[in-house]
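Hi there,

I know you've been waiting on this one. I reran it after we fixed the sequence typo, so this is the corrected version. Both the input and the resulting structure follow.
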Amino acid sequence: MLPPREFEALRQHIKSVETVKGAVLAEAGRPLGEIYLPHGGAISLVVTLSEGHMVEIAMVGRDGMVGAAESLGDGVSVTDAVVLFRSRATRLTPSKRMSRWLLRANELRDGETRPMTQELLARMIGVQCNAISIAAHGLQQARVISYSRGQIEVDDVDALQRSACECHGAVKMRRAQLFGNPP
C-alpha cells in the first residue's frame, strides 16, 4: 500500500517469508530476533502461568505485528509467539530496528550530543554487539551515521529514515494525529 518509490527504498530491508504452523517466532524472556507483519493466517501470543499452563493473551493477523511493542522497548519478548495458521509474513531484521531506534533517539536529543555506545544500542534492540557493529559499519560506509568510541551521530536523517522500518514513520504520523504537531 506504500507509494512505489517508498516501497522500493524499503524492499532491500524486508523479506517475505513463509510462516509454518507451530513455528515459534519469539520466546518469552529472550531477545526478539525479528518483527513479523503477517499477510494472513494467525499467530498466537501466549504466556506461561506459574503452574506451567500456557494461556493465549492475543491473536495477531494481517492487521497486526509480532514484536512491535518489544522493538520500541528493550527488545525482549514478553510472550511466546506461535504460528496457528500458516501464511506469508514480512520480516524485518534488527538493522531496521537499529535505524528506527537511532531516528527516535536523534529526535529526542534536543540538539545535544549524548553518549551512545554500540553496546547500549545492542541492549536496546535485543541483539548481539557484533550485529550492531556490522550494521553500524554499513551505515557509516554509506555516510548515514558516524561513530567512534562511545559516540554515534546521525549524519543523514533522510537516508536513515529510508533504512528504518516503516513503523517509525507510522508511529510518528499517528503521534502527530493524536497530539498535534509539537511546537
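Quick highlight: Residues 94-179 form a domain with the Arc Repressor Mutant, subunit A fold (CATH 1.10.10.10).

Best,
R. S.
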